[in-house]
Amino acid sequence: MSTTVDTNTIENALSLMKRFAKRTGIANKNGTNTRRYLWTDAFALLNFLALKNLNKDEVYDDQALRLIKQVHYNLGKFAPDDSREGWISSLPEEKAENHPTIGGLRIGKKLPERKKEQLYDQRLEWDRDGQYYHYHTRWIHALLKAGSHFESKKLSEWAAELSLTGSQFIIDKEGDLSMYWKMSVDLSRPLVPVMGAHDPLEGLICALQAKEISNSYKEDFDIYIEKLKKLCDRSDWGTDDALGIGSLLLNVISAAELEKKIDLPDSISTKRLLRDAEQSLNAFYESYEYDKSADQRLAFRECGLSLGLRCLEGNLDLIEQHGLIPNIDSEIWSLAREIEEYWLQKENTDVASFQDHLDINVVSLAASLLASVHPETYTSI
Predict the structure, then answer these.
(1) Of 320, 312, 322, nearest to 281 (Cα)?
(2) What is the pLDDT of residues 72-113, one digit of tens each?
């Protein structure tokens, strides 16, 4: 907080997170009126940890722990309007509470999952519940960070158990591997039987991080990791999607951290991921329409990109330790600041497209702002 810019940045992020905590029930200590959504909550958890690291106020640790409990008690169980009851894992109450992630976690969508007899509707599927593999990876990373922050083996073990749940998304037909993007709440059937572009990459990085920290499941992790490596071997990480590029940049840093300790396959090496990220950034920037009106833009996707740029910029020393210097033009680096400034303007947040995704938009914006002054919260484990 050494400069006026840093002070304003933190105050903007703090304001966004205070309203989010009140709006979604985190600020309510009795745990009532809570509204949870796994992707949003993963970044919210990191934001609370960043605010604690910056402000040293215990309230943010309290909110982080309350959020973890609410996520597990809400998304680790069947939804209130589901005919099924209790924990997704089907474990008895006491054991389930000690292993809240072992059956996976729901997305937190408003509509129930598609029934077996219902026809697939692409538009409706976005609003239906289930389990997303890539949402799992976001929460795994956040739990690992929280485990380190609180020096809690329990949180790290919960991250490891959720990571291994991802093995149920992989299909092995006589050695021919594929992966489901979305599955039913109980993980009994696929809802979207295609693979997400970066799912194997993020799954492998999470599994390697969780295995390193966890004291359990070594053999299970070995089997799971080998399957993920095979899926990664035939994958391409290039993308022109802003959110996807942001995630790829975060994975560049995670790979660089892992490569200080273990050998990584060429498919997810720091060098390979950085090359794909550079190419993706250039392709995105060539078609970037900075003058689009707010109602034609999605803040959380753009802020995902700015978060990735902020974190890469804050970890250049780590990247250079591997003999790499990002080949990124200054105009692209400046996108992070431009995106943040754009979405801090009230006239841009008043539009319906922003308000329709209010929680994830403000949490993503706050994450980008905080990463500009404390990037290590969003990267290192």
Answers:
(1) 312
(2) 999 999 999 999 999 999 999 999 999 999 999 999 999 999
Give me 358's structure tokens: 């209010």
Beta partners for residue 77, in sequence order? 87
Predicted pLDDT at 381: 81
In the chain, the amino acid numbered 311 is: C
- The string of pLDDT tens digits covering residues 212-229 is 998 889 999 999 999 999
Q: What is the 3-state secondary structure (H, E, C) of the chain?
A: CCCHHHHHHHHHHHHHHHHHHHHHCCCCCCCCCCCCCHHHHHHHHHHHHHHHHHHCCHHHHHHHHHHHHHHHHHHCECCCCCCCCCECCCCCHHHHHHCCCCCCCCCCCCECCCCCCCCCCHHHHCCECCEEHHHHHHHHHHHHHHHHHHCCHHHHHHHHHHHHHHHHHEEEECCEEEECCEECCCCCCEEECCCCCCHHHHHHHHHHHHHHHCCCCHHHHHHHHHHHHHHHHCCCCCCCCHHHHHHHHHHHHHHHHHCCCCCCCHHHCHHHHHHHHHHHHHHHHHCCCCCCCHHHCCHHHHHHHHHHHHHHHCCHHHHHCCCCCCCCCHHHHCHHHHHHHHHCCHHHHCCHHHHCCHHHHHHHHHHHHHHCCCHHHHCCC
